[in-house]
Amino acid sequence: MPRYLTAGESHGRGIIGLVESFPAGIPISLKKINEQLGRRQQGYGRGGRMKIEKDKVNILSGLRHGKTLGSPITLEISNKDWSNWKKIMDPMRSIGRNLSPMQKKRAYDVTAPRPGHIDLAGAIKYNQHDLRNVLERASARETAARVACGAIARQLLEYFDINIASHVISIGKAKISGKKIDFDLISGWSDASPVRCVDTVAEKKMIAVIKQAMKNRDTLGGVFEVRVCGLPTGLGNNAQWYQKIDSQLAATIMSIQSVKGVEIGKGFSNAGRFGSKVHDIIYYDSPDKHPKSKGFYRKTNRAGGIEGGLTNGSELIVRGACKPISTLMRPLDTVDIICKEAREAIVERSDICVVPAAAIVGEAMVAMVLADAFLDKFGGDNLAEIETNYESYLNTDF
Known about the structure:
This protein has helices at residues 30-40, 49-52, 86-89, 101-108, 119-126, 132-138, 143-159, 183-189, 200-216, 245-254, 267-270, 355-378, 383-395; strands at residues 3-7, 14-20, 57-61, 63-64, 67-68, 73-78, 163-171, 174-175, 222-229, 259-264, 282-284, 296-298, 306-307, 310-311, 316-322, 333-335, 342-344. By secondary structure, the chain is an alpha+beta fold. The strands form 6 sheets. It has a 5-stranded antiparallel sheet with strand order 8-7-9-15-10. A 4-stranded antiparallel sheet has the order 1-2-6-3, with helices on one face. The chain has a two-stranded antiparallel sheet with strand order 4-5. The model has no long low-confidence stretch (mean pLDDT 93).
């Protein structure tokens, strides 16, 4: 099964992604990977670093002439801001004396942990007395490599007409109306919105609350939703708890920095309803109309496309709830880890709202999970084997 790894620090030389055990013969577009990286950098409320970094990937291994080889794929994304951090983040040489006042501040004053961030817990775990040794890896800059890896997985899915889109449901108290929003609308319009919102009324409210947060030097969270259409029935496995597709999706969405809640379908609202108003009634029609669901279909989708740990042929719907990020331009009170006296928390260059960008990371994480499940079901060492297995499954009578 494929494995996706990342390496690198926020202000280090760069970020690395590694995709292992990916089948051979899958056509990969460098342009599509870079498009995903560009989407991650967008969004109203992003911070100053997005003005510096123009992320492009350099493929170091695993492809030849635009197709995967079956060997490990290595993806490199350079940090353009590295030139300003060489002395502070050098992997080998210690910090010298010839530093500017700002460099000294960055290098020596990182001792006031931010409430809500990894700073204090990480310092205790790793026995570090300079918080930079912890916070650099914990930064959401790492998600650039995830998005690059996810773009590889995504192109496998797209080859088999499985498509992914996302949009923002809420930012702060501003949220979309309750009307149904179909996949085509999200896929076609969310990228055009500065907050990835396809509801124009809600979009204006979201921008307004972000502006207010900027004025207050505060931060905002919200909820994003990832949708997937074209999935066949039966991805996942109910034999063990960790193999269930919803278990895997929940874990990967929760792994995104600032995400503190995950919902599949109408999970939270279903908890307050009677079963007769929750479960999606099953119908049957010609398999020609519903080939990936074997002719079975549902007119509603409160389950979010998953039943019993398996995809059921309906559209997959998963949401992530993001807390407001922990770096505030008007810092909260904390305690210095060296002298144990009261301090204001450190201020790292940061964003006001990351929900639109988190949605793109969410797409990447969902793509990784689904590509793994797809290959588990239809896998082979190369594209031809996968195609044969997939077509056989779709054409088998049931």
